[in-house]
Batch of 2 targets.
Target 1
Amino acid sequence: MTRPGFTDCLERVRENPDAAQEDLVFLLNNESPKEDALLFAAAADVRDRYCGARMVLRGLVEFSSYCGNTCHYCGLNRANGKAERYRLTPDEMVESARLVWDAGIQTIVLQAGEDGIAAQELADVISRIKGEHDMAITLSVGERPREDYALWKDAGADRYLLRVETTDPALYASLHDGRTVETRLACLDTLQELGYQTGSGFMVGPPGQTLDIIAQDIRFLAQREYDMIGIGPFIPHPETPLAHAKTGDLRLTLRTVALIRLTSRNAWLPATTALGSLDQDYRVDALRAGANVVMPNFSPADVKKKYEIYPGKRCVTEQTGACAGCMAGLAMAAGLELDYSRADSLKRVPV
Ligand code: 5AD
Ligand code: FES
């Protein structure tokens, strides 16, 4: 069964990506599998038309689990005395990039907690990787001063991922100590100004998040024209202040992915690792609801399980690079072509 008005509402959002807040809330607020199926099919169709029916790959290297931040949801927050901390050496980072390249993947995502790495040290790693391979480099190391972002861009970094987490000031403040949404937004603006292909996104289901806030954040991401948008369920980590909160709802997460596809159209949307780390692997479901990126983990085998943002993270026991073999199966299950290209922004010409 679909609710009265559902078809019209879906049509309005599909026709006009500048969707009304109440239409987004109406589509998020749904219990019917039939409505979900129609929404997901519409999103997959928009993905195929705007991006091609393909699934692209990014090789993920988690190079440090140190973090100076205190995000209440994250297992790496600095107050977690039980977290195992490591930092790869520059040589190990360059070696990881070789593994990604040898697997035929042309993008590496260098991700870490806010570990205070010296800007020049990371710039040197970027230059070395760029010197060896013609690959896109994506950074994801949190909030830093403009001059660091600029230094890394000059060294050859192409892209940057920084999830906004939420644009709601009160929710943002309740999840982060001593940080403001204004600073977050300023970092995102700086990244776009510097010419980075910029990715953002948020979790679905942290305590205090409402459907209204999700709708507002979906609209925000579309208006800012981010090149990449990551959405995953909140998964409570036992060593954080949110240990006893509920896991984010799977269907609501998938509806959010689908609505982002309808409103941000030609953005790259990962089927996130968090979606693969619930009671089973739901990444195919995300691909069927409009996602089109998968990020296999290329961190060295002995550090993978130490990068524990949330518990139950998938693929932590596999050998490095094993996930690459799994990718063809995911793409096939979702009816997508497996695409090994760099897959630059579809929104702007790279600079
Ligand atoms: N569950 C799900 N996602 C999380 N993240 C951080 N902690 C969790 C958690 N407990 C997400 C945040 C962050 C990204 C790297 O991982 O959105 O930006
Ligand atoms: Fe990691 Fe399948 S994606 S083993």
Target 2
Amino acid sequence: MPEPWYNAGRWVLASCRRDYDRNVTSQRPAPYKLGIVGAGQIARMTHQAAVKLGITPRLLAEEHDDAAALAAPHAVFSHPDALSAFADTCEIITFEHERIDLGLLERLEDDGMVLRPGIKTIRVAFDKMHQRRVLLNRGLPVPPFTEVRGPDDILDFASVYGWPMVIKSVRAGAPGERGAWIVESESEALKVLSEQGNRQLMVEGFQAIVKELVVLVVRRPSGSARCYPITEVIHADGVCKEIRAPASIGHRVATEARELALRLADDFDAVGVLAVELFLTTDGLVINELAARPHNAGHITIEGTPTSQFENHVRAILDLPLGPTWATAPAIVTMNVIGGFDRIDPTDHLAEALTVEGVQVHLYGKQPWPGRKLGHVTAMGDDLEQARDLARRAEAALNGRRAW
Ligand code: ADP
């Protein structure tokens, strides 16, 4: 019985690339040897979308119980050469997170590996400080910012921009690890600095946010690109709780946001999904962050558009035709299912949640920890209130609360 190409973990660990190549060509003429670096819920949903198209990606997981690793053939690596070895088994690799050494990715691309997105996009997306500088140099709207090398940088910044300010980690942390701190005073800032002293930090001016928006663009290597309906994200305690589409913004702001996102995707040669996080402030749109991968705010696209962000990401990185991205309902609401201190496992309450008819339940198979994203629910309706009500009931049920 021949082994499928993706089941290559043992070959990789033995560094038997040739064996692997020979097996691949003799067994599997399919052209799509796709690898996903990361195995959280974003990779899980990307994997599911690829499987729908007849493609079974390999995953570079960190832990055996990563959300995607639970649902897919995978390999778990922990040694430093893991990524290079993994890349040897793939023709194209894509990323679900930013915790990857940039130098290593540069070397891979120099060696001919197809990274999607490519290194030009990755450099901008993986390093918030570099991202801010590049955007500023292009005259685009970003909050004022500076690098933090020590307390003096924070105090100098405060003397110009005042308090509060926002301290951020330049590089992404581990899943669930906080990356932004709004600080009101010198003592709060110095506390963050001492607690996060081992991370590269930056500080930026606090923005008077009216709404937080996310524009998802999906782009093929040829440059053809599509935007999804703009979403509005609602945070509580620093965690994204709710995603709504369409965002309740005017036509002018929506057009500006879409044009900005499309321009950024072109400027950075994005391939796949580029998520553009925006603050709508009293002074207009400000760019918060670019993420070059499917994004949490795009969960609404699974049921709320004809082609989910995950499927279109797969299509784009394989240079296949993109699918339509319009909204299929007047209102779509996703609520995240976040673990509480009671450590309730939403799977125990699946039956109750499924009685809320019309709601789509997605659980990621994760152990329930406080603050951890365990799943999400999506509801559609004729208006936002109707969709919110359905989603809220299902989310409450999954968290063991009775909401009707
Ligand atoms: P992370 O990527 O770690 O989630 P973000 O940069 O997205 O970090 O910041 C998390 C949240 O903090 C944002 O969604 C927003 O609510 C708030 N925030 C971030 N930057 C600012 C800012 N400059 N001014 C005001 N609030 C901010």
